[in-house]
């Protein structure tokens, strides 16, 4: 009977150690899953931030293109006006 008790006791200890090991493994797995989810959340946040920056850059690029277009139009007008003034000046010289 003492032999059986010793075996039962060892079996119970083995069972307790196995259960503890399983709990530790489950906790480690849970922690790893949590780290993965945190990393995914960080990636999603970075992607959202990148999208916002991209949209701002595109908006600024559009504004710069519009301003460039306005400047080019103004340059053409100034060039035409300059030519007109030169023609008027030439005409005035000829009329003297």
Are there runs of 5+ residues with pLDDT below 50, and where?
none
Instruction: Choose one word for the global shape.
Output: rod-shaped
Number of beta-strand segments: 0
Helix/strand-derived class?
A: mainly alpha
Q: Work out the helicity level.
A: over 70%
Question: Whole-Å distance between the termini?
Answer: 140 Å
Largest sheet: none
- Estimated radius of gyration: 41 Å
Put simply, the count of helices is 1
SSE run? H
Report the sheet-strand fraction: under 5%
Rounded average pLDDT: 93
Annotate the secondary structure layout.
Blueprint: H1 2-95
Task: Describe this protein's structure.
The chain has one helix at residues 2-95. The chain has 96 residues and is mainly alpha-helical. The mean pLDDT is 93.
Structure characteristics:
96 residues; mainly alpha
Care to give the gist of this entry?
By secondary structure, the protein is mostly helical. The protein has one helix spanning 2-95.
